[in-house]
C-alpha cells in the first residue's frame, strides 16, 4: 500500500541517474567551496561574474535598507515598488521593446506567457530541444502541441502549413542550454511571419552576453519587436541576480498583466532584487570589457581543445560542451577533473540524447586565462597529450 516512492528512487539509482544537491559554502565565482571542498568551477550560468559583484551586492543592501526584504504582496496589490517599475522600463529600453513585465522566475515567465496566450483552439510549435519550462508551458497550455526538428525551419514550415489553428505560436530558445548553439532566428522570424504566426524567444543564456551592448541574441540578429513579438529574458544567469521578464509591445504586456496567472497570483520579487538588477544592468552596459574577455576565453578554450582532439559542439557562446558519448565515460571524466580540483558536471541522458553524454563546461568573464589553462592542463592529461601549450 502507499505510494512506493522507494521503488522509483531505487530505479533512478540503478540507472545511474539519481540526483542530489551539492552544498556550496561560498559566493558564486571561479573558486568555491562545494561540499566542503575547494574547487575551481566551470558550471555556473553567472557568465559575466555579476552574482557577487560589489556594485550589485551594494545595490541589493541599499535597496533592502530602504524597502525591507519582503515585497509583501503581489504586483497588482501593493508589492510593485518604484524599483520594480524602473527595472521594467530600463529592461524594455535595453532590449528595444515598448514594455516589459517582471516575473519571479524564468519558469514562471514561460508558463505564464504561453498559457495566457493559448487555449484549445490554438497551436504551439516548439524546437525539440527547448528548455523544459517552455515544453511544460506548451504541454499544459491546452493548445495543440508540436515539436519541430532542432533548428529546422523547413520542418517547422511544413507543420505550420498543415495547421488550421486560431493562434499559432512558434517558441524557441535563443541559445540552447545543453549544446550552446544559437537558433536560426532570422529564418524563424521570416517563417513565422509567412505563416501568420508569432515568435517567442527565450534568451536566458544570451542576455548580457550576446549582441554589441549585451542585449542578447535578438540584438545580435537585429530583430525587433515586429519580428519577434515575445522576448523572455532571465535575470539569474548573465545578470547574476534572480527573476525574469517578458518584453514586447505595450499591448502584449498589458494583456499578460491581466491574464498571466503566474504573474498575478504570486508575491512580487523583493524590491531589493530589482534594485540589485538595476545595478547589474548598469554594469552590463558600462563594462563591455567583460564580454570581450569572455569571448577571448571562449576562443582560447575552443582552439586548445580542438588541437587536443576533443570534440566540441557548434557553439560560440559561454556554453562549451565536450562531447564524450558514453554516459559512464563522461562521469569518469568528470570525476577525474574533480580529483584535480575542478568542477565540471557530466550531462547524461535523458537530459541529452542517448550516446551524446558530455561534460558541460561553462565559461565566465570572472575566470582568468590562467584558470582556463588549469582546466586545459587536466584535459591534456586526460587526452594523454604531453601539453596543449
Ligand atoms: C534557466 C532557464 C530558464 C528558467 O529560468 P529561471 O529563472 O531559472 O527559472 C528558462 N529558460 C531557459 C532556456 C533557461 O536556461
Description:
It is globular and about 60 Å long. It has 15 helices and 14 strands. A seven-stranded mixed sheet has the order 3-9-8-7-6-4-5, with helices on both faces. A four-stranded antiparallel sheet has the order 10-11-14-13, covered by helices on one side. A three-stranded mixed sheet has the order 1-2-12. The termini are far apart. It has 389 residues and is of the alpha/beta class. It folds into two domains: 21-52 and 288-383, Alpha-Beta Complex (Aspartate Aminotransferase, domain 1), CATH 3.90.1150; 54-286, Type I PLP-dependent aspartate aminotransferase-like (Major domain) (Aspartate Aminotransferase, domain 2, 3-Layer(aba) Sandwich), CATH 3.40.640. The model has no long low-confidence stretch (mean pLDDT 96). The protein binds pyridoxal-5'-phosphate (PLP).
Amino acid at each position: 500500500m502507499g505510494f512506493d516512492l522507494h521503488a522509483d528512487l531505487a530505479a533512478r539509482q540503478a540507472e545511474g541517474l539519481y540526483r542530489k544537491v551539492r552544498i556550496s559554502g561560498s559566493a558564486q565565482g571561479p573558486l568555491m567551496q562545494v561540499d566542503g571542498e575547494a574547487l575551481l568551477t566551470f558550471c555556473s550560468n553567472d557568465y559575466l561574474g555579476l552574482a557577487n559583484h560589489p556594485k550589485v551586492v551594494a545595490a541589493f543592501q541599499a535597496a533592502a535598507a530602504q524597502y525591507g526584504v519582503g515585497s509583501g504582496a503581489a504586483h497588482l496589490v501593493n508589492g510593485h515598488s518604484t524599483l520594480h517599475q524602473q527595472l521594467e522600463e530600463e529592461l524594455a529600453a535595453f532590449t528595444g521593446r515598448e514594455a516589459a513585465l517582471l516575473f519571479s522566475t524564468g519558469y514562471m515567465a514561460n508558463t505564464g506567457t504561453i498559457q495566457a496566450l493559448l487555449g484549445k483552439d490554438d497551436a504551439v510549435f516548439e524546437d525539440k530541444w527547448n528548455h523544459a519550462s517552455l515544453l511544460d508551458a506548451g504541454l499544459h497550455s491546452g493548445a495543440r502541441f508540436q515539436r519541430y526538428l532542432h533548428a529546422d525551419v523547413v520542418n517547422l514550415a511544413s507543420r505550420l502549413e498543415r495547421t488550421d489553428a486560431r493562434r499559432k505560436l512558434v517558441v524557441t530558445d535563443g541559445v540552447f542550454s545543453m549544446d550552446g548553439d544559437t537558433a536560426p532566428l532570422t529564418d524563424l522570424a521570416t517563417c513565422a511571419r509567412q505563416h501568420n504566426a508569432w515568435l517567442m524567444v527565450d534568451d536566458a543564456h544570451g542576455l548580457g552576453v550576446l549582441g554589441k551592448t549585451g542585449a542578447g541574441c535578438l540584438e545580435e540578429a537585429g530583430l525587433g519587436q515586429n519580428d519577434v513579438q515575445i522576448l523572455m529574458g532571465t535575470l539569474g544567469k548573465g545578470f547574476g541576480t534572480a527573476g525574469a521578464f517578458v518584453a514586447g509591445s505595450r499591448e502584449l504586456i498589458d494583456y499578460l498583466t491581466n491574464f498571466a496567472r503566474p504573474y498575478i497570483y504570486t508575491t512580487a520579487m523583493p524590491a531589493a532584487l530589482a534594485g540589485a538588477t538595476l545595478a547589474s544592468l548598469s554594469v552590463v552596459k558600462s563594462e563591455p570589457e567583460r564580454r570581450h574577455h569572455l569571448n577571448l576565453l571562449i576562443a582560447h578554450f575552443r582552439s586548445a581543445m580542438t588541437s587536443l582532439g576533443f570534440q566540441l559542439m557548434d557553439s560560440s557562446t559561454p556554453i562549451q560542451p565536450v562531447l564524450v558519448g558514453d554516459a559512464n565515460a563522461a562521469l569518469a571524466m568528470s570525476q577525474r577533473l574533480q580529483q584535480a580540483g575542478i568542477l565540471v558536471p557530466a550531462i547524461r541522458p535523458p537530459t541529452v540524447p542517448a550516446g551524446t553524454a558530455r561534460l558541460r563546461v561553462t565559461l565566465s568573464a570572472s575566470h582568468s586565462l590562467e584558470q582556463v589553462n588549469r582546466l586545459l592542463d587536466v584535459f591534456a592529461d586526460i587526452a594523454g597529450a604531453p601539453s596543449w601549450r
